[in-house]
Amino acid sequence: MRISAEWLGEFVALPPLDKLENTLLMAGLGIESRDDERFELEVTSNRGDWLCATGIAREIAAMTEARFRAPSPDVEEDGPAIEGRVSVEIENPADCPRYVARLVEGVSIGPSPEWMQGRLLDCGVRPINNVVDVTNYVMLEWGQPLHAFDFDKIAGGKIIVRRAQNGEKLTTLDENERELSGEILTICDQSGPIAIAGLMGGAESEVSASTVNILLESAHFTPQRVRRGAHLLGFATEASKRFERWVDPNGCRRAADRAAQLLAQIAGGRVAAGAVDRYLSPINEAIVTLRPERCNAILGLKIPVETQKNLLSRLGFKVAEVEGNLRAAIPTHRRDIEREIDLIEEIARLYGYDRVPTTLHAGTNTSAGRPLASRLEDRARSAGLRCGLTELSSYSLSNQATHERAGVDVDGAVRLRNPLSEDYTLLRTSLVPSLLEALKRNRGRRLRGFELGRVYLAKGAGELADEKRMLGLALSDAPPAPHWQETAAPVDFYALKAIVENVLREFGAPTPLLWPATHPAFHPGRCASLALGGEELGVLGEIHPRVAADFELSQRAYIAQIDFDALVRHVSLVRQYRPFSRFPAIERDLALVVPRNVAAGTLVDAAWRGGGQLLESARIFDVYQGPNIPADAKSIALALRFRAFDRTLSEGEVESAMAQIMSEQGQLGARLRA
Amino acid sequence: MSDLETRLQQLETQTQSAISHLSNSAELETTRVAFFGKKSDLTQILRGMGAVPAEERPRIGQLVNEVKTRLESAFDARKTEILSAQLDQKLAGETIDVTLPAPDIDFGRRHPLTQTLDDIVRIFSNLGFSVVEGPEVESVYYNFDALNIGPDHPARYERDTLYVSDDVVLRTETSSVQIRVLESRQPPVKIIAPGRVYRREAVDRTHGAMFQQVEGLCVAEGVTFGDLKGTLSTFLAQLFEAAPGSGGVQSRFRPHFFPFTEPSAEFDVLFNGKWLELGGCGMVHPKVLENVGVDPEKYTGFAFGFGIERLAMIKFGIDDLRLFYENDLRFLEQF
Q1: Domain B112-332, classified CATH 3.30.930.10, yes or no
Q2: Which of A28, A299, A599 is the closest to B256 by Cβ?
Q3: A322 and A268 share one domain
Q4: A215 part of a folded domain
Q5: Beta-sheet strands, E only, within B89-167
Q6: Which residues of B touch A343 (CB under 8 A)?
Q7: ipTM score
């Protein structure tokens, strides 16, 4: 439903627009969009009464406790009486409880005035001519769909509301020939159907440029009948949308009068005295009883009876207190109020959903379950498992000898005063001894494992220990069992590095650059430390052969230890999707000769620095030392891929990026390989 | 000092010097024999012990053994030094460039929708809800009638719902599961029903013919609209705790209409300064409770429902619903 604040303001004093927006929202009128004064509102299927300006204004009045003012139309009836010239016959009042007809004669067809056209356009309705515009205007004002017939085309001045006969046909004013059936309600004259009730008029009786006399129809067709017709015929109209959602049967006469008044005013018609008003089965106000304590029980509030009564009264319900309960008479434009729960919802709406305090049902605990820290541990375990590792679990009790053999410091260890055995005299200060023991236990087997556990460091006297969570990884290079296919990937430093990088990536940490490091447990040329944001995170490498021998390992072994608490300080669990480009990539290989001591990783970094936004990936695919390369140098080949998100890259763009990259590489002492 | 003692002294000095000049493992083997073998000077001296007067023998014997022990330990120490230096030299030659890239290894990922659903299930489990499932090919009764969606309701039209036959549809909500649960057991009931639902809808960036929903239901004595607000606010706060710009998640409840709840509401979350609509909720309509044989005077309850895709889209900043079902690795590998 599109409506402008300008029109609403005719019926109620409006709050400022931003406040109005909130008022509408909290009444239950969703705001699809807003263009300054013009709102596009989402009207739920239970509130047909909101499909018009007065309906929305009435709601605003109830919400803001303002006065709703909508004067009754004042029709000057200066034409001869309708009596005797128009008759209305209703076959079945269950399909059409009420039908009001009014006659306006001597109109001159032309455009409607600008103010009316403006309001129609605000509502998204195209102006056609003054007569059609008046019917639309009144529908938008009061929610009552109207139809204007060219009175002179109605045979015998007789309106018959009846079901169509199977096979009857009618060409509607959109020039479609519709085949009707017994489920469809029609408006007929003596010669046959002239309109489909509540849906669309026929082309034959349509108002045209030569029309002089207008028969106005303002009726109540039952929702089911109109819905059925719309469904069977496969189309809907602004009118049928309203009838399907209930049109106030007690507003038919008012709408007819309002239309007659406007026709007289803007189309120069004379309104025939009186109306034909066939109201065969009158629809009365529903009486619904509310138990105030029930209302409070459902809402979780303690609203006094008097307040509840006032809230309902603001909606125009006539409310009386009867033996502690509230009896409400519901105006007929609110067909959705049928039972107690409906009144409870009205009270909640007017009281304000936002004012209902948030509570939890008995026994519910918002802090139940595992804390984030524990869930992060699971995430680390999952990452380990997904790399093909098995979870290990070792004693946290150990001894000095084992630590020393593993090259691990025990100075800061927490020592026991009364150890039961020599094996368990202190708490481990590192996972490395535990992992070495696990490797020893699995000598000759291909161990790939991880342990997530604590290490313990003594603090000052009288203080408890510093307990840190560590993630340890262990790989052994035992030969795989023979298999007819060659499947085993090599186990080496880089295999371990790949796992470490995946674990870090799982925590949203950037890929860290590794730097050579030394550690007594590790091979001096195959050990690296990793750091994030300036914080030391851990160490990884190949186990020193001397340590390996001390643990009786028969194969090379690889271990990493990551400070999990430190890692968690750098995690970002936020994943933001990055759309991928649909444009082709351009690939370039770059073969460089660099001094031997230049770390390969710095070449990749240099490529990223030089490549900028356009560089999608940079990978090292070859490392070579030997003939044709100076003895103190090595050759490294990079595969570079460029791609733009929004276009196909030109050669020129790639060439200039390549030049930038080469300039960065030059700073490292690299030159192109001849 | 006897000759023997002098010879012993000289031998020790010479041998110590020779040991200290050893420089590789090959020399170690040959000199070991020369120093300590059967023909070595030391062995000769030991053999010559017979010539030593009997009263001197214990003293000289001890002396010889002491020299032998000293020399052996000096030899072993030197051997260790040499081997260690050799190892260090060998290891130095094995030095690798640790900055070279690691190989690509397989690292399986959970689908972003599964990740989102896992979060949802975890939070509601903590709030005391259990997870139930039901059929996706569902009877019209459970999908519509039992939910107070009458025969004339537009949702039932073939235009919106996928029918298998007059009585069987692809479920349009997982609320049907809740009805099945309420029929089979009396309150208290606290459940969530996640699963796929179907609509007769053209597929675009924000709509799908199939999507996933979570519907929740809590029916017990004394359940209030305030409890509904509290439960969903808690859920949203916990779900978006790690999301960017969430800094204290704000939620909002607006009146709305659903046939199966009353009062009904839609709930929104304030995300990056914008209110985003997430789903619908409300107090279970007394008629729905009556339909399943639960006394609405004794028990009250709330129900809610929302799309998992929608939550995942907000959480991960995804702009196109179709991505979830295209199985494009460039998408899946980002989560």
Answers
A1: yes
A2: A28
A3: no
A4: yes
A5: 130-131, 137-139, 163-165
A6: none
A7: 0.87
